[in-house]
Task: inverse folding
């Protein structure tokens, strides 16, 4: 399966992902193909919509202290739902679909997520800190929300201007 990261302002990123009903080879192939592209692009999380697949599927792999992301640390979530949230944390987020842009975003510090694994087994995960932030960021993708949508009006306008300038520079350097 040949996947590539969809970048802002592609409209597919605003699409709401569909619940997964079939836990079949197609789902397994998608999950298997998402991991290498996430690691290759230095991501810690990736939602299926970011590779143009509007399904409620996401993967996460928080790097270890040495920066490695061993596959045994991979978390695959299908149909995730946050069932408990509390506290507040501000984290500087980036996104593979909005390259080279980082911004402080307010998230819940502690969350509990119910989800299914690739074989439809129901799981529950309690997360805090970076893992909590990453899960919330990826679940937002499944709802058609980008982290830049959480910026204040003034900051969003500044982002749009900066991003257009960066895109022009990117094109002119080719």
Result:
């Amino acid at each position: 399966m040949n996947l590539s990261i969809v970048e802002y302002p592609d409209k597919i990123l605003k699409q709401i992902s569909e619940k997964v009903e079939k836990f079949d080879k197609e789902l397994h192939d998608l999950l298997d193909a998402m991991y290498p592209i996430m690691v290759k692009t230095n991501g810690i999380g990736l939602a299926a919509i970011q590779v143009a697949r509007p399904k409620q599927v996401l993967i996460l792999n928080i790097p270890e202290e040495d920066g490695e992301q061993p596959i045994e640390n991979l978390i695959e979530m299908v149909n995730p739902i946050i069932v408990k949230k509390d506290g507040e944390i501000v984290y500087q987020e980036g996104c593979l679909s909005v390259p080279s842009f980082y911004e402080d975003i307010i998230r819940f510090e502690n969350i509990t997520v119910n989800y299914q694994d690739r074989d439809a087994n129901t799981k529950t995960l309690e997360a805090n800190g970076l893992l909590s932030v990453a899960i919330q960021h990826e679940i937002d993708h499944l709802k058609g929300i980008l982290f830049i949508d959480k910026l204040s009006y003034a900051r969003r306008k500044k982002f749009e201007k900066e991003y257009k300038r960066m895109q022009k520079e990117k094109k002119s350097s080719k």
Q: What stands out?
A: The radius of gyration is 16 Å. DSSP finds three helices and seven strands in the chain.
